[in-house]
């Protein structure tokens, strides 16, 4: 799958799940124990703006505002990554300098797995975009190393997940989420 298309598609999947969040669910806990639904959306929006080298706006207080903030941030990140040389240049992220070809895959995976987190936290189906989830699982298996897992690291230990579960559940489990 083309990484730019995967990024755009993952951002849309995130937006679709976010659109299903009810107003009373913004403070609900998510599989990312340190974040509420609102915090998790802020994380994705901030990550998109970091790629676009822009400051994120003040946090929104309702679902409509979060949808607008996410849409603007997703467009900004996609525009920078898709610009001439966008995948060849390096980006300054919290983890250091990262090549654009790696950033686009990271951002696609981040948006998709956090869409799964939102779905899980708000009682929506976690069977989201199987083709994209399969691509993200494959790239994750190729690039994620054990030194990236554990406390204070981006990913937890791989969790058990039955083979017959939706591929997005298997991705979430591979990235350290409890799927049951």
CATH homologous superfamily classification of the domain at 3-125: dinb family like domain
Shape: globular
How big is the Rg? 15 Å
Strand order, sheet with most strands: 1-2
Counting helices, strands and paired strands, the structural category is mainly alpha
* Count of alpha/pi helices: 6
Largest sheet: 2 strands, antiparallel
- Oligomer classification: single chain
Considering DSSP H and I runs of 4 or more, what fraction of the residues is helical? 40-55%
Contiguous low-pLDDT stretches (5 residues minimum) are none
Number of strands: 2
State the order of secondary-structure elements, H for helix, E for strand.
HHHEEHHH
What's the architecture of the domain at 3-125, going by CATH? Up-down Bundle
CATH C-level category of the domain at 3-125:
Mainly Alpha
CATH topology of the domain at 3-125, anyone? Four Helix Bundle (Hemerythrin (Met), subunit A)
Cα(first) to Cα(last) distance is 29 Å
Strand content: under 5%
Mean pLDDT over the residues: 95
Short description:
The protein is 54% helix and 4% strand. It has 180 residues and is mostly helical.
Describe the protein.
This protein has 180 residues and is mainly alpha-helical. It has a domain at 3-125: Four Helix Bundle (Hemerythrin (Met), subunit A) (Up-down Bundle), CATH 1.20.120.450. 54% of the residues lie in helices and 4% in strands. The protein has helices at 3-19, 37-52, 63-82, 100-121, 130-143, 167-174; strands spanning 90-93, 96-99. The protein has a two-stranded antiparallel ribbon. β1 and β2 form a beta hairpin. The longest helix has 22 residues, at 100-121. The chain is globular. The two termini are 29 Å apart.
């Amino acid at each position: 799958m083309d990484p730019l298309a995967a990024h755009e598609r993952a951002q849309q999947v995130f937006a679709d799940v976010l659109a299903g969040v009810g107003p009373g669910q913004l403070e609900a806990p998510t599989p990312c124990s340190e974040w509420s639904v609102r915090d998790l959306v802020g994380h994705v929006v901030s990550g998109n703006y970091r790629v676009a080298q822009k400051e994120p706006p003040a946090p929104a207080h309702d679902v409509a505002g979060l949808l607008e903030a996410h849409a603007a941030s997703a467009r900004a990140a996609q525009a920078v990554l898709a610009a001439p040389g966008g995948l060849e240049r390096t980006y300054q992220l919290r983890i250091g300098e990262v090549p654009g070809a790696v950033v686009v895959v990271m951002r696609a995976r981040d948006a998709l797995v956090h869409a799964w987190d939102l779905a899980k936290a708000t009682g929506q189906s976690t069977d989201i975009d199987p083709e994209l989830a399969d691509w993200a699982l494959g790239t994750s298996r190729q690039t994620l190393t054990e030194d990236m897992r554990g406390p204070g690291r981006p990913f937890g230990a791989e969790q058990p997940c039955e083979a017959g579960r939706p591929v997005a559940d298997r991705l979430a489990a591979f990235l350290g989420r409890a799927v049951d």
